Amino acid sequence: MSRPQTRTLVDDPLGGTVTSTVLPNGLHVLTESVPALRTASVGAWVGVGSRDETPELSGASHFLEHLLFKGTAKRSAAEISRAIEAVGGDSNAYTARDHTCFYERVLAADLPLAVDVLGDSVSASLVADADVETERGVILEEIAASADEPSEMVYEYFNKALFGSGALGRDIAGTVETVRAMTAGQIRDFYAAHYRLDNMVVCAAGGVDHDDFVKLVREAFAPLEGRAAVPAQRLAADAPPERPAPLVVSRDDTEQAHLVVGCRTFSRLDDRKDAMGILCNVLGGGMSSRLFQSIREERGLVYTISASDSFFADTGTFSVYAGCRPEKASEVRELIQAELDKVVRGGVTAEELARGKKMYEVGLLMGMEDSHTRMNWLGREQLLYGEVTSLEDDLAENAAVTADQVRAVAADVLSQPMTTAAVGPFDEKDFR
């Protein structure tokens, strides 16, 4: 009989010890034990998201995110929520394009209860017909609420412009049509195909003992033992358009225009990712950033402007978001492009490089002062990268980035034609 494989991965400079066990059934179980913390966070990370769905099943992962809290043979939906809230904890979940995460935060003394409730919900959900119909209505309301938020919808238009009709270009929640058409049987089949122990990571951080946690997880997630351990078969994303649309405008009677300007980049496994993060900080990472100083402070044209990146297994995105008066949208778009052109031509200064690095370092270390962020680090690293990088190594990689590397990534990424998505009371002709 195969035995669990356990090893201590890293000694965290913040005082935690990270330990990993791979069970014979393929489940990765990780903990970061921080004895000084009186809280604990536990998460179940599943390697399935919206990009694993066929067009007909668009929104299935998000549908399951709702349904897995609706009841098991052991607990009703009300009993699931009451169990955690009775001890002052909270439960939640989110769906991304390449994974789904379910998590709970409790006092360390209540971790056994949290693991039992989480494991029961994720591994033994009934996905009952009646619950599917109830949540169908809830999700349709959620889609309607998002449609009323132009600051959210502009990103959907942006993604669609970059990736077309492929999985990365579709809304994570699906569409009104796909959510209405999806059957309970289809959702149960999707659940059985993707919610397997070999496609999952369970982790905890805070006041937790690793050996005790492994025992709790093995028992709580036992209902998944019977599911076939077959290699995950991620759907190949439809080929994105060779040339993304340069401008997509959605006319809406809003008081403020919402703009996203950006482009496709590279995989999360690309060595240039750290340099890209620093570039985002320099361009739009705070009040001292170039975009904020140029467009808000000097010209007073926006209230909010920021730059960000996002990475997947095979591609990524760079984007600048801005909110401005509708009559200034075209000017703001041109000013954003001017700042991007400037950094392509001249790179970044030594002072900007140092500030960009420090913003990343301090943001990471401040976040790690709570158990939830540490749990997220474990789950994301193991599920998406296949291993957990120590904070020391991650910070060292950030510190090692040079100005030449930032200049090179700016030239590679920002010299390509930009795509603009805009929502507001205007049409394409209003952008010169």
Mean pLDDT: 94
CATH superfamily of the largest domain: Metalloenzyme, LuxS/M16 peptidase-like
The SSE order reads EEEEHHEEHHHHHEHEEHHEEHHHHHE
Strand order of the largest sheet: 1-2-3-7-4-6-5
**Strand coverage percent:** 15-25%
Intertermini distance: 69 Å
Helix % is 40-55%
Taken from the alpha-carbon principal axes, the silhouette is globular
Helices and strands: which structural class? alpha+beta
Total helices: the number is: 15
Sequence stretches where pLDDT stays below 50 over 5 or more residues: none
By CATH, the architecture of the largest domain is named: 2-Layer Sandwich
* Whole-angstrom Rg: 23 Å
Examine the coordinates and then state which fold CATH places here, giving the name of the CATH topology of the largest domain.
Cytochrome Bc1 Complex, Chain A, domain 1
Largest sheet: 7 strands, mixed
Give a brief outline of the structure.
One of its GO terms (biological process) is proteolysis. By secondary structure, the chain is of the alpha+beta class.
